[in-house]
Design brief:
- The protein is an alpha+beta fold and 404 residues long.
- It has two domains: 17-272, L-amino peptidase D-ALA esterase/amidase (4-Layer Sandwich), CATH 3.60.70; 280-400, ArgJ beta chain, C-terminal domain (Ubiquitin-like (UB roll), Roll).
- The protein has eleven helices and 15 strands.
- It has helices at 57-67, 87-105, 123-135, 142-148, 202-214, 250-272, 291-302, 305-313, 319-326, 359-366, 393-400; strands at residues 17-22, 34-39, 44-49, 72-81, 108-116, 157-164, 170-178, 191-196, 231-236, 280-288, 339-342, 345-349, 352-353, 370-376, 382-389.
- The strands form three sheets. A six-stranded mixed β-sheet has the order 13-12-11-14-10-15. Strands 3-9-8-7-6 form a five-stranded mixed β-sheet, with helices on both faces. It has a four-stranded mixed β-sheet with strand order 1-2-4-5, with helices on both faces.
């Protein structure tokens, strides 16, 4: 059950982008599992990908194709099969699929896959479904697209922002994402596809994407497992016209802020829909010597199965928070400077148990569907946050039954 998350009601079209879905029957025959995205000529594309050494064949192919700086005319996405751990045969399968898609779209296509690792991609079924998806291409099919890329997700994930600029132009940013398990950042840890009609160079688009990913898709974890298939794509069609947005412009800054809002919402939606999740937890660390140090403390707590199971139980066993923070990779840790609280309830002050803490107050916070753990290290001026969820019986069940 997703935590305070519902299917998006309105995902506005982005001029220059059309989406079509189809059924290839990759793992199930009763749902759409193929997505084709057509991009108008002149679209610029930026991307971020997993750093997992066993990255999937489509990730390798995407990196190669983006490095060529050839115009991208489309994206091809399948769910149900990751095409990872498939060796040279997987690369050939990815190439065959994009070749079939390029026949429909008339230009270079980037491939993406999600699902079970280590199984051969059913190329024939995918290639047969691509023309059916092409027939369905529409500008208003974002929600259908979000549903087609789901695996263990329980809710389709999407959001949008409309940004009025001072010169009278209005920029649209719409995005979708999938992810519910095998979530830990080492880039983006999921699939996400975002489009805008802003006119912007590839260099500035890539910089914007890297900037916003740092505090959104790279600030989430469900289970500490970095996927083989993580891909985050941002496409800018330029259909809004006018002067290109670039660094140093107020309009570019506005664009990055709006893009950040979209990515924040999508990233948090992935955690809210974490496999078996019943709690959405923000870990906010401040007073660190660096952002990396703050994030390391946050992830140490977010990856603690003892803390996550206590959160599931609604058990304010704050000793588990203390233990995780204390074993974080921080040099010369001075506990006498550390403060810890959960929402408004203080647990530790200057390294000592807070005298006003009462178990009932802690239990009330842990019973909430959402709460924040605040950790102040007292070492510096830097901070960071991590979004995570609890660890429930259902997480074990879902993953134990994943291939059955």
């Amino acid at each position: 059950m997703a935590v305070d998350l519902h299917e998006p009601e309105n995902l506005p079209p982005v001029p220059g982008v059309r989406l079509g879905v189809g059924r290839a029957g990759i793992r199930r025959s009763d749902r759409d599992d193929l997505l084709l995205i057509a991009l108008d000529a002149g679209t610029t594309v930026a991307g971020l990908f997993t750093r997992n050494a066993f990255c999937a064949a489509p990730v390798t192919l995407c990196r190669q194709r983006l490095a060529e700086r050839t115009a991208v005319r489309g994206l091809l996405v399948n769910s149900g099969n990751a095409n990872a751990g498939t060796g040279r045969g997987g690369m050939e399968a990815a190439r065959q699929c994009v070749t079939a898609a390029e026949t429909q779209l008339g230009g270079m296509v980037l491939p993406f896959s999600t699902g079970v690792i280590g199984e051969p991609l059913p190329v024939d079924r995918i290639c047969s479904a691509i023309p059916r998806a092409a027939v369905q291409l529409r500008s208003d099919a974002w929600l259908d697209a979000a549903r087609a890329i789901m695996t263990t997700d329980t809710v389709a994930k999407g959001c949008s922002q409309r940004l009025p600029l001072e010169d009278g132009r209005e920029i649209t940013i719409t995005g979708i994402a999938k992810g519910a398990g095998m979530i830990c950042p080492d880039m983006a840890t999921m699939l996400a596809f975002i489009a805008t009609d802003a006119p912007i160079s590839r260099r500035d688009l890539q910089k914007a994407l890297e900037t916003v990913a740092a505090d959104s898709f790279n600030a989430i974890t469900i289970d500490g497992d970095t996927s083989t298939n993580d891909s985050l794509i941002l496409a800018a069609t330029g259909a809004a016209g006018g002067t290109a947005l670039g660094e140093g412009q107020a309009a570019y800054t506005q664009f990055v802020e709006a893009l950040q809002a979209v990515c924040d919402q999508l990233a948090q939606a992935i955690v809210r829909d974490g496999e078996g999740a019943t709690r959405f937890i923000t870990i906010a660390v401040e007073g660190a010597c660096s952002r990396d140090e703050a994030r390391a403390v946050g992830y140490t707590l977010a990856h603690s199965p003892l803390f996550k199971t206590a959160a599931f139980a609604g058990d304010p066993n704050w000793g588990r928070i203390l233990a995780a923070v204390g074993r974080a990779p921080v040099e010369d840790f001075d506990l006498s400077r550390v403060d810890i609280r959960i929402d408004e309830v203080a647990l530790i002050e200057q390294g000592e148990p807070h005298p006003d803490y009462r178990e009932a107050a802690g239990a009330a916070v842990f019973a909430r569907p959402e709460f924040t753990v605040h950790v102040a290290l007292g070492r510096g001026s830097q901070g960071a946050w991590v979004y995570t969820c609890d660890l429930s019986y259902d997480y074990v069940r879902i993953n134990a039954e994943y291939r059955s």
